[in-house]
Design goal:
heterodimer; A: alpha/beta; Rossmann fold; 6-stranded mixed β-sheet; 9 helices; 11 strands; disordered N terminus; B: 329 residues; mainly alpha; 2 domains; 14 helices; 79% helix
């Protein structure tokens, strides 16, 4: 909303970590080999020798009044929410960003979409399809390359008919083209035609979820950022939701699936990025979670041990216990 | 639907009974002696005791208040609201004539304050923190802290007396026969009172609308719209106004009472012969039948305003329509 404040310093600074830039061509490498801070899954592809989305050294901090200082003397403090975060999404894959609730994962979605609050300071580098991005270029990609699938029906205008919301902002011939496309999509996703004339409060949870997905798909995105798309859905619907994302990825798109639920993520994701305290501690193929010895970071291993199928061993590595347990306990 | 209509009718009559009873009691409790107030101090002194007793009887000074009220209520039930003692004419006629003078003034003040208030509120809310926002807020805080009658006096002093741009009072030019009065004359005389009334009404509506705009723009659906590439003004236009409509309608129809209340003071300052001024005359003259008549008329207007707001909710908000269907089923 508040894109007017030029706080973004993308493309300068923080990326001086010696790693090759993302637009640098990929040399041949094995899937399990660590490169660009990550290892690959089978579906990961590099057409044009670059990632679909590549984020390097992203830091996001908020300038706030110091809550510990006396009220009238409170100075501004910088509160860093994301720091030196590096992650990549390939074409044709689902990357699950897994982290505890309330740990700032949504800020990552905001950063990719170029949605910045006025008091935010962002640094780092983002490339989309090999092109370096800044805040204004990211904002032109919203709905034109990068689409968001939000969490819940509260992201639909309660007073607007669902059809008009899926079609979105457009006029003239463009509108009739999009209306036709919407009807095709609704049929493909099993939504009854009556949904078009319905209001959001009349939708069931499963319908709302598909409507939100259609809002993204109608823009023919190359990358979908799905921000916690499954909470509130029962297991069957959650699996359906993820299957829809899977088929989008299989069609060549990239998905960044942000979730707190490691088990659900492992069902569909090709790769998993473990998010902890504002950064990605490990970005690895989902298969690595089949065997803890393949995991490099101690927090990832704590997460593995805390999963129900691996014995709920929350106390195993005390320093990670509670958040690892929460993520592994998940919604399932 | 029938139940709703019956409920509203019962409420309306309960309101009328309550308003008339309270007005009667208040007039009776007032320290003003209606006979003295209407004949004047000098006439009272020279008046014979016989004449005085006659007037007391005509004004009903010695009867207990409840007896007068029931006598009035019996007549009112037959549709006779009594005679205005002050104007020597049937109350219905006085109220109708005065309301006719006021209706254009009140309606224009009401519309201007609503339109201007919503426009300023939406702009300030959409540009939160900007210079425009600060100016609008400052203007609103200043105006809500300003008594209407004081503003009316200032406007009168500056625009009518100092600059002479507008007439100092009345609804028509002085010394012109009623056939010679044009609509332009009436509008010209209405400008200052309407301006004063609407200017103070704007503050309330603009501040409320601004808050609601800020709420809407920080909502999940506004964020999602932004994530789909809609710009700030597209979001305000597509989602903002739609979701603002309900609270704005509530405020607008709720403000009917404020406009009518404000008109009492403003019409007095501008010597504008409308219902506001008649209310002051009736109150100060102890003219209970007229005051009750005016109170009933204005209460009915406010009731109608709130009823319209309630009915419009159902039209604007599909969630309420659904609720109504469920309640009936």
């Amino acid at each position: 909303m508040r894109e007017d404040v030029p706080a973004l310093r993308l493309g300068e600074g923080a990326a001086g970590n010696g790693e090759a830039c993302a637009e640098a061509p990929h040399g041949p490498h094995a899937d399990a080999e660590l490169h660009h801070h990550h290892s690959h899954a089978e579906a990961s592809r590099h057409p044009g020798d670059h990632h679909l989305l590549s984020i390097e050294g992203l830091s996001v901090s908020f300038s706030l009044y110091d809550s510990r200082a006396p009220y009238f003397r409170a100075g501004r403090v910088d509160l860093e929410q994301l720091h030196d975060l590096t992650v990549s999404v390939h074409e044709g894959e689902i990357l699950a960003v897994v982290g505890a609730s309330g740990s700032g994962k949504t800020l990552l979605a905001d950063a990719v979409l170029g949605l910045y609050e006025p008091n935010v300071h962002v640094s780092g580098r983002i490339w989309f399809d090999g092109e370096p991005m800044d805040a204004s270029r990211l904002s032109t990609l919203r709905g034109h390359g990068i689409s968001l699938v939000p969490q819940s029906v509260s992201h639909l205008d309660p007073l607007m008919r669902v059809g008009a919301q899926i079609v979105g902002l457009c006029r003239g011939a463009e509108r009739s083209r999009r209306v036709a496309r919407m009807r095709d999509l609704m049929a493909a996703y099993g939504l009854p035609a009556s949904v078009e004339r319905a209001y959001p409060h009349e939708l069931s949870g499963g319908m709302a979820r598909r409507v939100l997905l259609l809002c993204a798909l109608i823009d023919d995105p190359r990358l979908i950022v799905a921000d916690e798309p499954t909470p509130g859905l029962d297991l069957e619907l959650a699996v359906h939701a993820l299957d829809d994302l899977r088929s989008f990825a299989d069609g060549g798109g990239g998905v960044m699936l942000i979730t707190h639920d490691i088990e659900l993520a492992l069902r569909v994701a090709d790769r998993v990025a473990v998010f902890r305290e504002g950064t990605i501690v490990e970005e690895t193929a989902a298969e690595s979670f089949s065997n803890p010895t393949l995991l490099r970071h101690p927090f990832s291993r704590a997460l593995w041990h805390a999963m129900p199928s691996n014995g709920f061993a929350v106390a195993d590595e005390g320093q990670f216990g509670s958040s690892a347990g929460e993520m592994a306990g998940g919604a399932l | 639907m029938l139940r709703f209509a019956l409920g509203q009718i019962v409420r309306f009559f309960a309101l009328m009974v309550a308003v008339s009873a309270v007005t009667f009691v208040l007039v009776a409790a007032s320290p003003i002696d209606p006979v003295q107030a209407n004949t004047g101090q000098a006439a009272m002194l020279t008046m014979s005791a016989e004449k005085r007793a006659q007037l007391d009887e005509r004004w009903g000074v010695d009867e207990p208040v409840w007896e007068r009220y029931f006598a009035w209520a019996q007549d009112a039930a037959r549709g006779d609201l009594g005679e205005s003692l002050r104007f020597n004419a049937p109350v219905v006629q006085v109220v109708a004539e005065r309301a006719g003078n006021s209706v254009l003034l009140l309606a224009s003040a009401w519309v201007i304050s609503g339109v201007l208030g919503v426009a300023l509120g939406v702009l300030a809310g959409a540009l939160r923190g900007s210079l425009l926002d600060r100016i609008v807020r400052g203007y609103c805080y200043l105006l809500s802290a300003t008594p209407t009658f004081w503003l009316a006096i200032v406007v009168l002093m500056v625009l009518a007396v100092q600059f002479g741009w507008f007439p100092v009072g009345f609804s028509v030019p002085i010394g012109v026969s009623s056939e010679g009065v044009t609509l332009a004359d009436r509008l010209y005389h209405m400008v200052l009172p309407a301006l004063t009334l609407s200017v103070t009404g704007v503050a309330n509506i603009a501040l409320h609308t601004r808050e609601k705009t800020v709420d809407v723009l920080s909502s999940d659906y506004a964020r999602f719209a932004a994530a789909r590439g809609e710009g700030r003004w597209a979001i305000v236009w597509r989602h903002g106004l739609r979701n603002l409509a309900l609270p704005a309608l509530t405020l607008q129809f709720g403000s009917v009472s404020e406009i009518i209340g404000g008109s009492v003071l403003v019409e007095q300052v501008f010597s504008y012969p409308g219902i506001g001024q008649a209310t002051v005359t009736a109150g100060l003259g102890g003219d209970a039948p007229l005051l009750v008549g005016l109170a009933l008329a204005t209460a009915a207007l406010v009731f109608a305003g709130n009823l319209v707001a309630n009915l419009l909710y159902g039209l604007v908000d599909p969630r309420m329509r659904k609720g109504a269907v469920d309640a009936r089923a």
